[in-house]
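Table S2 (text version). Query chain:
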Amino acid sequence: MLTKARSLSFGRRLYQLQTADVCYWLKVQYQGVHAIVEQNYLNELSFYAAYPDLNCILPMQYIDLTAQTEFAQTYSSLLLPHAPPWLGVVNDLSLRQITTKILAMLDGLDELAQQGLIHADLKQEHLVDWQGQLKLLDFEQIQPIAQIQPHLSATPRYMAPELFHGEGKTLQTELYALGIIIYEWLSGQRLKAATYQDWAVLHCQSLNLELPARYAGFLALLHGLTAKLKSARFADIQAVKQAIQQINC
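Corresponding structure-token output:
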């Protein structure tokens, strides 16, 4: 079992399973432990049930563990194959390969947007490589684009400035998170902050994007993704793709 200590207290379990040639992850949620975490889990189950054929999602299976075992009080569990990170070592890639990687991420988000959805919890570990294609993971926070509501859960590292002021998640907050992911990948540096307040100051006031000279052509793209004012960010995913076409590879 490879479950974070905090998740254990919420009734969440994560198991790694190994067959002869494939590694899997089994995601389990107990009932009656933590209402919000359980609702998030059910949100993910509902998403998979409603959109089973989306190309951007990692193949999954429902597993019923509710027989007379220790899992009798769990919801349907999710079984997903292990997949490596989509964003590997950037120094191994040409500028054109980097652009292709970024476009694939945008295609995945665009497929969700065409269904009227945003992932709403975008982070590097939720982007994986499955048989050479970009796939998205963890849809517990997924929500309709038009259903703007104050966020209940977000990772400070990827939070757009307006989220720190209590505004809801939108396509622009999704693009901001993508910008932070791309920036950390290209810079080879992880943003650092000790507290929630420090993260707020970083994103709302002091974020300064600097890249190695080799990747300087991506700065305009990153500025358009991570502008402090959401009205100054790219209007939609197509606008991001158009900006990428302007990068000289």
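Notes on Table S2: The mean pLDDT is 93. The first helix runs from residue 5 to 9.
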